[in-house]
Amino acid sequence: MGDRILIHRLAVFAHHGVLEEESRLGQRFYLSLEASLDLRAAGRTDDIAATVSYADLAALATDIATGRRFRLIEALAETIAAEALARFPALTAITVRVDKPGAPVPAILDGVAVEITRSRHG
């Protein structure tokens, strides 16, 4: 099945990182979600109860990213994926991407990112 709900580059200001300055000062992160689920019933009935609200997905990701502190963006992505699958039974899988444009690395780059995919079946 190729049905998906996509949220692109949801901006949040949060305090994640290994360095003490990152936790103290904070920085911008971008969250992208690709939620897999069957959207046929929602498309046929035009009923929000037959889908997962993208507003609810965005709120969940925002709450996790701004309400908790993670040293690693891998842990942030993992938590968002796990909690989305737990909260929304209609999801069969979710891909979470966390972009960190202000990563403190000694290189000239636009940023770093991690992307994970988790499903109910492994």
TrEMBL record:
<protein>
    <recommendedName>
        <fullName>7,8-dihydroneopterin aldolase</fullName>
        <ecNumber>4.1.2.25</ecNumber>
    </recommendedName>
</protein>
<dbReference type="GO" id="GO:0004150">
    <property type="term" value="F:dihydroneopterin aldolase activity"/>
</dbReference>
<dbReference type="InterPro" id="IPR043133">
    <property type="entry name" value="GTP-CH-I_C/QueF"/>
</dbReference>
<comment type="pathway">
    <text>Cofactor biosynthesis; tetrahydrofolate biosynthesis; 2-amino-4-hydroxy-6-hydroxymethyl-7,8-dihydropteridine diphosphate from 7,8-dihydroneopterin triphosphate: step 3/4.</text>
</comment>
<comment type="similarity">
    <text>Belongs to the DHNA family.</text>
</comment>
<feature type="domain" description="Dihydroneopterin aldolase/epimerase">
    <location>
        <begin position="5"/>
        <end position="118"/>
    </location>
</feature>
<keyword id="KW-0289">Folate biosynthesis</keyword>
<keyword id="KW-0456">Lyase</keyword>
<dbReference type="InterPro" id="IPR006157">
    <property type="entry name" value="FolB_dom"/>
</dbReference>
<dbReference type="GO" id="GO:0046654">
    <property type="term" value="P:tetrahydrofolate biosynthetic process"/>
</dbReference>
<dbReference type="InterPro" id="IPR006156">
    <property type="entry name" value="Dihydroneopterin_aldolase"/>
</dbReference>
<dbReference type="GO" id="GO:0046656">
    <property type="term" value="P:folic acid biosynthetic process"/>
</dbReference>
<dbReference type="GO" id="GO:0005737">
    <property type="term" value="C:cytoplasm"/>
</dbReference>
<dbReference type="Pfam" id="PF02152">
    <property type="entry name" value="FolB"/>
</dbReference>
<comment type="function">
    <text>Catalyzes the conversion of 7,8-dihydroneopterin to 6-hydroxymethyl-7,8-dihydropterin.</text>
</comment>
